[in-house]
Structure formats: C-alpha cells, structure tokens
Design brief:
This protein has 14 helices and 8 strands. The chain has 298 residues and is an alpha/beta fold. The protein is globular and about 75 Å long.
C-alpha cells in the first residue's frame, strides 16, 4: 500500500522503517529536511513539502500525521485540508485529546475528507516488536487502511475500537494505567532500596519476571535499567507527564468514576518537579506551632 507519512521523530521514523520493511510504499516528509534525506536512504520516498507529498500519492490518498499533539497537529491538519481532495484520509497517530478528534472529524468531513485517530503505543521498541494500534473512526475510513495498521502492530495488536475519537480515548486510559503501574514499581523498589537487607535489586527484578504475578514488560525494562545503573546515578528525580494522565483523571471526574491510583500517580509526578515543597513547610510549621515539634532549618 502507498501512504504519505508526516513527522520523522524517533517514533515516526521507526514506524516508516517498519512499513517499508513490510513492503509498503511510504512517501515521507519532515519539517527538517535532513531527516527526510536520512529515511530516503532506508527505502522511503522523500518529499520536501506537503504539496509534493500529496502530489506523489494516488487518489484516494491517505496521509499519516505523526507530530506533537496540540498546535503542531492542528496546523498540519489545517494545511492538509487545503491540499487533499474529497475521499482522501488524514490519520492522526499522535497523542491527541479525543475531544479534538471529534471536532476535527466533523471539520474534515465538511471538506469531504475522512479522519482516523490511531492511538499508538510501543515507544522506541516498536520497530522491533511492533506497535499496539488502537484505532478510532468511521468503518469506511478505517478498513482500507488496515494493511498499514496490521503491518505496524504485532499479531493481535490491532483493533478498530470505535468511532471518531475512540482510538485516542483508549490510548488515553492506557497511559493513565501506565502511570499507576510505574508508580507502584517505583514505590515498591524504593522500599526495597531503603530496607536493612543488602538486596540486589537487579536480581530481585530479574526473578520477578518469571512466574511472579507482577511480571510485565515494564518490569523487564526496570530490570534492564537496574542492571545498567542500580543507583540511577546522573538521573534527576524529575518526572514529566505527556498530558494523557491528566486527561484520564479529568475523564474519571467527569464520569464520576473513582480513580485514586491513577490520580495519585499523576500527583506524584507533580511533586517530583518541586525543588522545595511549600506545602511540606506548612506542615512542619503547623506541627511546631501546636505541638512544639522541632523543625529543620536551612
């Protein structure tokens, strides 16, 4: 199948490589032309403008957008709407908020275009093991693209999960669950690290990968990290969030669904970014005021 692909970051470039490896014809474009030239040496066809990319695709065209969610994706969809023809399809494979998908689906439909949201999980390992593909959109837009989704995914790793926005909705909750899993591992291994026993945490994480009820791919990755750097030297305890954890918590609030683990794991990431906690100082001061408890001074 022939498809256009916009965005050649670490994940996007590997997705193009996987498609080319599986026999698809990919016309690739990146705002930075050096990345386009690089992927051309690996079997993709290059384009150095969106107009050139569209011109190199047969109708009905399909263009996959893999750029940062938010303004960058919005601008790319807007530009493509002015270049594509009725019957063509835009696929958003980034981490877009599902509310934006619903809005964009209606917007592009007014131009006679189709819109597909493809929740994509796999990170930098996707080239090797495949990407879990959670796809939303109208059936007539999704079905013609299934050869692409099945090439990107490992066996049984692709599903058309629902209508417009459903793909990114499922991916959003997936990432919220990921926050909770990661936080549980972090807390558990901090307890192990603080214990009186001289534990080899790489060893512990290693045996937990076999037969244990807490085994997972995340644990495999943690084991690899501990084996390389058991004290995590040179790594600052500052944890970012991509936004999907926040959206998951907000959706839980909007739906009156209790989600304490995901919510607290998100709050733990916020706490990691504070060099000093004003709230903790309030607690220390209050204990001193009512009970005369000692405070530590700077």
């Amino acid at each position: 199948m022939r498809i256009g692909f916009v965005g050649l970051g670490r994940m996007g470039a590997n997705m193009v490589r996987r498609l080319v490896r599986d026999g698809h014809e990919v016309v690739a474009f990146n705002r930075t032309p050096e990345r386009t030239r690089e992927i051309m040496t690996e079997g993709a066809e290059g384009a150095f403008s969106l107009a050139e990319l569209v011109a190199k695709l047969p109708a009905p065209r399909a263009v996959w957008v893999m750029v940062p969610a938010g303004d960058a994706t919005e601008a790319m969809v807007e530009e493509l709407m002015g270049l594509l023809a009725p019957g063509d399809t835009i696929v958003d494979g980034g981490n877009t908020n599902f509310h934006d998908d619903v809005r964009r689906h209606a917007l592009v439909a007014g131009k006679g275009l189709k819109y597909v949201d493809a929740g994509t999980s796999g990170g930098i390992w996707g080239l090797q093991v495949g990407y879990c593909m959670m796809v939303g959109g109208d059936r007539d837009a999704v079905e013609p693209l299934e050869p692409i989704f099945r090439s990107l995914a490992p066996p049984d790793g692709y599903a058309h999960v629902g209508g417009p926005g459903a793909g990114h909705y499922v991916k959003m909750v997936h990432n919220g669950i990921e926050y909770g899993l990661m936080q549980a591992y972090a807390e558990g291994f901090e307890i192990l690290h603080a214990s009186d026993y001289d534990l080899d945490l790489a060893q512990v994480s290693g045996i937990w990968r076999y037969g244990s009820v807490v085994r997972s791919w995340l644990l495999d990755l943690l084991h690899d990290a501990l084996a390389k750097n058991p004290e995590f030297e040179g790594i600052k305890d500052w944890v970012a969030d991509s936004g999907e954890g926040r959206w998951t918590v907000q959706e839980a609030i909007d739906r009156d669904v209790p989600a304490p683990v995901i919510t607290l794991s998100l709050q733990a990431r916020f706490r990691s970014r504070q060099d000093e906690s004003y709230g903790a100082k309030v607690l220390a001061a209050l204990r001193n005021e009512f009970g005369g408890h000692a405070v530590k001074t700077e």
